[in-house]
Amino acid sequence: GVPGTHVKTVKKGQCQEVVIEGDSVDLSKLPIQTCWPKDAAPLITWGLTITKGPLKKRQNLGIYRQQLIGKNKLIMRWLSHRGGALDFKDWQEKNPDKPFPIAVALGADPATTLAAVTPIPDSLSEYAFAGLLRGKKTKVCSCIGNDLQVPENAEIILEGVLHPGEMADEGPFGDHTGYYNEVESFPVFTVERITHRKNPIYHSTYTGKPIDEPAVLGVALNEVFVPLLQQQFPEITDFYLPPEACSYRMAIVSMKKQYPGHAKRVMMGVWSFLRQFMYTKFVIVVDDDIDVKNWKEVIWAISTRVDPTRDTTLIDNTPIDYLDFASPVSGLGSKMGIDATNKLPGETDREWGESITMDQSVIDKIDSIWDELSID
User: Fold this and answer.
1) Mean pLDDT of all residues in the chain?
2) Taking a C-beta distance cutoff of 8 angstroms, is the pair 156, 138 a contact?
3) Alpha helix positions (H), 43-195
4) Which tens digits make up the pLDDT trace of 252-306?
5) Residues classed as catalytic
6) How far is residue 324's CA from residue 176's CA, in Å, rounded to a whole number?
7) What is the pLDDT of residues 72-82, one digit of tens each?
8) Strand partners, 336
9) Which of 37, 103, 134, 367 is the most buried (most CB within 10 A)?
10) What backbone torsions phi and psi does residue 174 show, to the nearest 5 degrees?
11) What's the CATH class of domain 8-196?
């Protein structure tokens, strides 16, 4: 699909049926929820943040949480490597004294929401990707106060700016890790205009100890990662990010192993190929006879195919999510790779075990007479 062909621009969106501006803007009228007892304030959790940097043609969509700090003020919590933060950095370098325009869409349709959290190539816009996912063009309209395009069927749009140098301490909030995270400083988003449908529905979620709601979305996203990884590494057969490992801190990869050391190459590939896996602390590589989504099989492979010294790779001083308080320094820590594949000559001198598998003819025979056996 050519960028643009899966997007249709309309003059006025359903999200602009009601317009609230200036002093009338009051975020406390939205039912913004407080999720956990020690949360610092109400928190917008499902805001699709739309930004555009001065250097790229395309807009960026990302989901960043936003703490309520005033009737027209939110804190935009984006990590420095994420698209919105990069757009803002480019803008500040080019326009140091100018406010940075931003729009936040609440209650967009599922395809657009999923596109905002999917690692798609830079040449394709999130809206175009959403159109491909949905099988129908994504309809967008321009904001009233800036040129950013928003999903026209969203429930609520927040339009506004980040003023140069305006920062605030964000948090603590209960996070997807299952812990409260530290207070840190982020840019303040001044909301200049709220537009919404008549009788809008406020879309929200909560984040907490896995498996929470966003973690389930993460499992759906797994399916998107497999073809992306296979483009670069065709030997990968499957890939899984267990939701209970905070959706990204552990990856299990199955592969068709072709030569000694091949599992280690795949391990390195997972860590370096996609930005999304920069914070994946553990990569477990298994052969393609193992179902990566089945812990029982993965544990069996680890306990029968791994020598802890030979098959464990430890790498120091790698980027780590700053939310990860287990790392010795904030933002910097180690990675562990476990090669749970069958070992080839060169990797071992010993005769390797052969898996016990049922004879196909016996399976076929039992299948053919199963009904007659009257076994429930």
Assistant:
1) 92
2) no
3) 83-94, 110-116, 126-134
4) 999 999 999 999 999 999 999 877 788 999 999 999 999 999 999 999 999 999 9
5) 175
6) 11
7) 999 999 988 78
8) 282, 314
9) 103
10) -65, 130
11) mainly beta
The two tokens of residue 278 are 């920069």
Cα 107 from Cα 274, distance rounded (Å): 28
CA dist 196 and 29 (Å) reads: 13
Name the most confidently modeled range: 121-130, 135-144, 318-327, 362-371.
135-144
- Alpha-carbon gap, residue 305 to 287, rounded angstroms: 10
- Which positions ≥6 away from 206 have C-beta within 8 Å? 33, 35, 45, 212, 213
Element (H, E) at 255: strand 250-255
Asked if 35 contacts 206 with a C-beta cutoff of 8 angstroms, the reply is: yes
Contact 351/266 with Cβ under 8 angstroms? no
CB 13 within 8 A of CB 136: no
Please tell me the distance from the alpha carbon of residue 297 to that of residue 186, in angstroms, as a whole number.
Answer: 43
Nearest to 263 by CA among 186, 338, 165: 338
C-alpha 293, offset from chain centre: 19
pLDDT top residue among 81 and 172: 172
pLDDT at 212 over 80: no
pLDDT mean over 9-19: 96
CATH 2.30.110.10, the chain: domain bounds: 8-196
Distance CA 359, CA 257 (A): 24
Q: CA 314 to CA 46: how far, in whole Å?
A: 36
> 286 with 236: CB under 8 angstroms?
no
d(CA 108, CA 92) in angstroms, rounded, equals 29
Tell me which residue of 131, 130, 134, 156 sits closest to 143, measured CA to CA: 156
pTM of the model: 0.79
Residues of the chain with CATH 3.40.1670.10: 213-362
- Which amino acid appears at position 6 of this protein? H
Tell me the C-alpha distance between 118 and 350, whole Å. Answer: 44
DSSP state of 348: B
- Calculate the alpha carbon distances from 355 to 65, 236, 254, 304, 341 in Å: 48, 21, 17, 10, 12
Please identify which residue in the block is written with the tokens 């999510």. Answer: 321
Tell me the one-letter amino acid at 310.
R
Assigned fold of 213-362: UbiD C-terminal domain-like (3.40.1670)
Residue 213 CB-density burial (10 A; 0-12 exposed, 13-18 middle, 19+ buried) = middle
